[in-house]
Amino acid sequence: MVTLTWCASEFEALKANFSEQEIAELTYAVALMNAFNQLAVSMRMPVSAEG
Asked: Is the distance from CB of 18 to CB of 26 less than 8 angstroms?
């Protein structure tokens, strides 16, 4: 079960620095990165060292 918790003051701080469009775009970007990471873990992709 997933529990979603957030505080109104945290959202207000976010709104103080970003527009609603930017908040939506950031949310999408974070969700997309999470999806790619979950796929990589499930496919057991090796971590490459940058060098």
From this structure: yes
CB atoms within 10 A of CB 18: 13
Q: At what angle do helices 20-42 and 8-17 cross, to 10 degrees?
A: 110
**Residues ≥6 apart with Cβ < 8 Å to 23:** 14, 15
Cα–Cα distance measured from residue 31 to residue 25, given in angstroms and rounded to the nearest whole number: 10
Predicted confidence (pLDDT) at residue 51 exceeds the cutoff of 90: no
How confident is the model over 19-31, as a mean pLDDT? 94
**C-alpha–C-alpha distance, residues 12 and 6, integer Å:** 11
Are 23 and 14 spatial neighbours (Cβ–Cβ below 8 Å)?
Answer: yes
